[in-house]
Amino acid sequence: MKKPVIHAQDVSLTFQTNDGPVHALKDVNLAINRGEFVSFIGPSGCGKTTFLRCIAALETPTSGNLHVNSISAEEARKARSYGYVFQAPGLYPWRTIASNIRLPLEIMNYTKQAQKERVEKVLDLVDLKGFGKKYPWQLSGGMQQRASIARALSFDADILLMDEPFGALDEIVRDKLNEELLALWARTRKTIGFVTHSIPEAVYLSTKIVVMSPRPGRITDVIESPLPKDRPLSIRDTPEFLAVAQRVRAGLEAGHGT
Questions:
Q1: For residue range 216-249, what is the model confidence (pLDDT) as tens digits?
Q2: Are 146 and 127 in contact, with CB atoms under 8 Å apart?
Q3: Core-most of 26, 68, 195, 247, by most CB within 10 Å?
Q4: Phi/psi of residue 129, each to 5°?
Q5: Are 189 and 153 in contact (CB under 8 A)?
Q6: In 17-140, alpha helices (H)
Q7: What are the residue boundaries of the structural domains of the chain, listed by start?
Q8: Looking at the domain that runs over 6-81+158-256, which CATH code has it been given?
Q9: What radius of gyration, in Å, describes the C-alpha atoms of the chain?
Q10: CB atoms within 10 A of CB 150
Q11: pLDDT at 129
């Protein structure tokens, strides 16, 4: 049996604050296998982003075990095992789009030629070919977020962690980027962890949906999607889609009752 790419066992995290301890996560158990698209959904403050940050070794659990590629999250971070896409694009306005994407490659001391080749590859991958010489302010919000995704893909990590990357975009742009992200996932077969507040977005994108309760964040349901991997936007009107969405909604309501 293959080991999961991400494996959490009884992970808890308590923040110490001036107002007392804040219990962000409690006894989280989860296995994510290679190539899965896993969405985390729950109310604000439920620990979705905190758990994603634990996977990325940006936060350290208070107790429990968390392994990424069978090593500690900290070792996986040092091994460049993942790319991370934040809620805002976070592009430097004085650097061109190509230069922004190239930044992690510069830090990792890739050769100039390798940088050039990788930037060209990921620009094409996210449908921004020809925009490398533009500056962030010359691009729409959706295009800026695609550039942010390209930057996370530039060093070809196996895992892509995404923290509500489309949350600030309007519904039409969000739908288009959802389609593009599914196509990107189909081409690259990355393992994706995706935080969202949107039930339709979670159901449309995911092979597995993790429903979380209000703080302290616990997993109330893990839903294996029965939907086919080929998903036009129109699938959202099908009985199968609506049944999964209803289970997610029920999981969220049950979490509020615990």
A1: 889 999 999 999 988 999 999 999 999 999 999 9
A2: yes
A3: 68
A4: -60, 130
A5: no
A6: 48-55, 73-78, 97-107, 112-125
A7: 6-81+158-256, 89-156
A8: 3.40.50.300
A9: 18
A10: 28
A11: 93
